Amino acid sequence: MKVTKAVIPAAGLGTRVLPATKSMPKEMLTIVDKPAIQYIVEEAVNSGITDILIITNRGKGVIEDHFDRSPELEERLLASGKKDVYEEVVSISKLANIFFIRQKETKGLGHAVNCARSFIGNDPFAVLYGDDVIIGEDPACAQLIRAYEKYGKAVVGIKAVPEDAISKYSSLKVDKLEDNIYSCTDMVEKPKTKEEVLSLYSILGRCVLTPDIFDILDNTKPGAGGEIQLTDAMKTLARTVGMTGVDFTGKRYDMGDKLGILQATVEIALQNPVLGNSFREYLKDIAKTL
Predict the structure, then answer these.
(1) How far is 232 from 226, CA to CA, in rounded Å?
(2) Are 214 and 114 in contact (CB under 8 A)?
């Protein structure tokens, strides 16, 4: 079955990037000239997704506003002769069929995904984490969807992380299938000891799930941090029917981390067709003073 639906959990509080997120959702923090969540939506669209559910909570209405039409602004742009900017602004509202639902209690990523049950129905779906912007020529989400279509199992986007950092992530039991594609048969969320580490491969930012994940989530007890962890539900899936892991290409930026935001801003600015050259020269001048 073709994957045309996606869920973007965007209900986190952004505590790692306070005070910027005191009144501004971290998903709306800007990378050059677009909010982070727009890069994520564009990745989904470029992967063939047509219907997107963004899961928010109170105080995040600005995300809905961003993907809506803005008649007053559009009228002002046209009156000022700024047709190119007008078309760019209008195009945001036409990226996909975008829906919103609130996660009324922040009980974890697993709970957030479970809020999407009625939207998903019996279809496979992609999950693009709201913290993670991934930039590359081949959309990361598309790479996972192709693996799902080939192997017929739920898919996780994976990357190797440093050994001293694995305790902050999940650790996966993987066996190579071909090239950058692996079979995944077990996982541990935030391993506490070396014995719990299955490999240095971790789930980073993307997965494609089958609808049977919802019944598993219903029976998943709170795990790390007292929250319902999506990883715990996927562990059940991996141990029973197995999952596929894709070591995706593309650069991941953690938008819940101050350094990640700075890295995204600099590196994406360098790729900007309008600003790139000027910004590169600016950085060269700055580098001379370091």
Answers:
(1) 12
(2) yes
